[in-house]
Design brief:
This protein is an alpha/beta fold. The chain has helices at residues 29-43, 103-116, 136-145, 163-169, 185-190, 198-207, and strands at residues 2-7, 13-19, 121-124, 154-158, 175-179, 193-197. The relative contact order is 0.18.
Amino acid sequence: MVECVVKNWQGEEVGKAPLEMRVAKEENAPYIVHRALVRHLANARQGTASTKTRAEVRGGGRKPWRQKGTGRARAGSIRSPLWRGGGVIFGPKPRDYSLKMNRKERRLALRTAFLSRVEDTIVVENFADQLQQPKTKELASALTRWGVASENKVLLIMSEVPENVYLSARNMSNVKLIKADSLNIYDVLSADTIVTTSDALAKIQEVYSD
């Protein structure tokens, strides 16, 4: 079990929050996290890229010139891949890139990845009531008080996302706001700093415990 320091809106330490998760064995952790990350990125691919083969390109039905006697190389179609405007050899076709991974493995990989980022995680009290109206500047100031560098890529996790917080965060290009029950391994690993509310931390342990 790890105990995380909890900060208030002003950036002062006000207590500690426990973080306890079952993670992968040390020798297996890199492998299972890598598999989960590759799966996430593969499943995000649309797979809609498509090119036309010589059979699909319009035209080219007539032989350009006779087979013999012209002194030129043999040609059966102006849509040969060797010709400008011809088909494409071995070009991409629509395909499904998705990979399968057991639900328990995915959960284990996510827990392992999240716990590995504990040193870059900042736990704060629920601050929704501090933003009476959408104010990007106030949220940016709060992140600075909590110890987040201005150039850092931040993953902000909350149990519920109030509209004022959403509107305050959406203008910040380096902040991604996400609900505790919608975590994904890519966001957890790619963020420089993870900021989570104490109730979101409890929800993460509840939702992803099995």
